[in-house]
Amino acid sequence: MDVAEAVLPREADAFVAFVTTHDPRTDRVILRASLDPETATFLRILVARAPDGTWAGVAVARAASNQPTGALFSMIWVRPDHRGRGVASRLRADLVADIPEDLTRLTASAFADDSASLAVARHWGFEPVGRSDTTTLDVSHARMPRPMEGVEVTACDDLRFEDERAVEEMLLASQTNPEFELGLVLSLAGFRDTPAPGQRPVAALARVAGAPAAISFAVADGDRMHVVYTGVDPARRGGGLARRTKEVLHAHARELGVRTVLTDNAKENPGIRHVNDQLGYAPHSSTCWLMRPLR
Which of 29, 30, 222, 294 is deepest in the core (most CB within 10 A)? Predict the structure, then answer.
């Protein structure tokens, strides 16, 4: 079994195709974004090749500004007919060899109904730290909503604002989600760094009396989009701003050719889950998040 670094960007499409073929529920938008070396502070992408040259497994380890400080996100996928042959163990060992000292914890995820992967993760010392549900929405018929009195919602894909400090302060204040408690602090710079080549940012900002009040940010990859975050200034909650901002985001995304939207929300975040229910998001999958000390 030969394990070597993937050749990027040449093998990026093959990497995404390998994973989504053997694990169809994997969101290609987030996966492709994780393969971009330009937006990572540390990135290692490995391919295990069988003696006949075919891919037997792949792995990625990534740290970036839009991830919790000190955390290295890792994922390993093995072709079904090569499982139980030590491919995952070999990939794991090579993945975490000679990791920078400032990375202190290893994070991973597995679908909640994938008992085999969860058992392997626990065997490797990972402990559950949370669970999120992925939901999906068809936006092929989304239309711009009627205006709300006193509220202006506009597309802002470049995430550049004359009052950037005010928008940044609103974004920070809006983060009362469980991921924030785990150290994932979102910023405009982090949003700008998220899309990979071939992807594009999609965003909408709501203002009340001219002041930033809510934001929704997503990454589009062809006709699919992943909504990364929607947040509302705590002082403005309860007025329908989250729903209205996402409605504008959906309609704008449709104009860009997006047809299917995915988003992840922690079970401990009932506010945005309620908004998504109102918008018609349907269940897609559930993911367990796991963590262990790196050393």
Answer: 29
